[in-house]
Design a protein that fits this description.
The protein has 421 residues and is mostly helical. The protein has 10 helices and 4 strands. InterPro entries: SH2, SH2_dom_sf.
Length: 421
């Protein structure tokens, strides 16, 4: 499971949520080391490619394209620095002019759009008014039957001139409003550009503070690496101690099976709780295990066909189910079982996230959960425990006897000997 995470450089969010903070931290160190290793390989490969390109460019034909620098009177390469030559504007002046021009163009563009809308409104307004007035005149003419059509046209002309004056006055007011809005918009855009320039200048002042934070971050990384190295050394030392005690089985015993059918009836009679699953294993059936658990039925089949022959969840010296083993239960159910139990009480359950188990532990301030990887031919805490155990019972006994239980305070270690009610 750990090799797959390092290969893909990805961990499922549900699986990450099952890890505690120290497990996450050490897993981060290992992923970081893998990133550095890949980067080093890529850097070496890039250097080789660049050296090949240089050799190839050296032997190219003389007629190939090239660059020739213009030299000054002193024989050196001629360089012009904007703002320092005679007659050049300073950077601040150029920047001010550019910002003013951009603001003016933007405001002018917006003013043109507003004037188009205003012009359309004015035309529509007076076109409708003229149509109404014509309709009124025609209606009155037909009502009173005016004989002198010339007089009627004179009246109409006077009305048209009056409306024209009103239209011109309305247009003049509209132009004045648009012009004022254009000036205000130009000032607003200029202030925005000026504010953005000041923020860029302020970011340069924050560069020193950022460097100080970077230095502190690097120091913290070194401190975490030092702690991780000490943790690995301590686990190695405890592993050697366990081997001397005979608590860790050799790799040759990984494939040994136990006859679970013998004494099954007596185990059910002597055990305080019935077995959690049927211990009968079908013979001659093989199956392709998915990359991760996808359903409860698949987990049950995996446990029957791969874990029961390895006596997972069984006591070491009998065919009884270990009192700390609770089968397939959820994280919430485990916490409910341990809710009113004393500090140090624990239980082991089949995980629904990985091919393995989860150790749920009653802590002074709450609960802790540790994933046990069983995807290979051994049992170990996922990502943090270098010790590999042939049986699940060996892992539990090792961390009780050596008093090096991962992420469990030393003052609570004697309580590990309790049954995980």
């Amino acid at each position: 499971m750990l090799q797959q995470i390092l290969r893909d450089m990805y961990i499922d969010p549900d699986l990450l949520a099952e890890l505690n903070e120290e497990q996450k931290q050490i897993l981060f160190y290992k992923m970081r080391e893998e990133q550095i290793r890949r980067w080093t390989e890529w850097d070496v490969k890039l250097d080789k490619e660049e050296s090949k390109m240089k050799i190839k460019a050296k032997f190219q034909h003389n007629n190939s394209k090239h660059i020739q620098w213009l030299n000054g009177a002193d024989g050196d390469v001629w360089v012009w620095i904007m703002g320092e030559a005679h007659g050049d504007k300073t950077y601040e002046q150029i920047s001010e002019e550019l910002m003013s021009e951009r603001a003016r163009q933007q405001a002018q563009k917006e003013a043109e759009e507003q004037w188009k809308q205003k012009e359309a409104e004015i035309k529509k307004k007076f076109r409708d008014a003229m149509a109404k007035e014509k309709a009124r005149i025609v209606a009155e003419k037909w009502k009173v039957e005016i004989e002198d059509r010339k007089a009627a046209k004179m009246v109409e002309k006077q009305i048209q001139e009056e409306l024209k004056k009103r239209e011109d006055e309305e247009r003049r007011k509209g132009e004045e409003q648009i012009r004022q809005r254009e000036e205000l918009r130009a000032k607003e855009l200029y202030l925005n550009l000026k504010r953005a320039q000041q923020q860029c200048q302020g970011s340069e002042n924050e560069e020193e503070e950022w460097r100080e934070q970077l230095r502190k971050s690097k120091a913290a990384d070194e401190d975490r690496k030092h702690k991780a190295r000490r943790a690995r050394a301590e686990y190695h030392r405890q592993s050697l101690r366990a081997i001397q005690k005979g608590r860790v089985a050799g790799l040759s015993n990984l494939f040994q099976s136990a006859n679970l059918n013998n004494g099954q009836e007596s185990s059910q009679e002597n055990s305080s709780a019935p077995p959690l699953i049927n211990l009968h294993v079908p013979v001659g059936k093989s199956w392709q295990r998915p990359s991760r658990p996808i359903s409860r039925e698949v987990i049950v089949r995996w446990f029957k066909e791969e874990q029961i022959p390895r006596r997972a969840g069984m006591e070491k010296s009998s065919n009884l189910i270990a009192p700390w083993f609770h089968g397939i239960i959820s994280r919430g159910e485990a916490e409910e079982i341990l809710m009113n139990k004393p500090e140090g009480s624990f239980l082991v359950r089949v995980s629904e996230k990985i091919w393995g188990y989860a150790l749920s532990y009653r802590h002074q301030t709450g609960f802790k959960h540790f994933l046990v990887d069983a995807s290979g031919d051994y049992y170990s805490f996922l990502g943090v425990d270098p010790n590999r155990h042939a049986r699940l019972t060996d892992l539990i006994d090792f961390h009780k006897d050596t008093k090096t239980a991962l992420h469990i305070p030393n003052k609570a270690l004697p309580m590990l000997c309790k049954e995980g009610e």
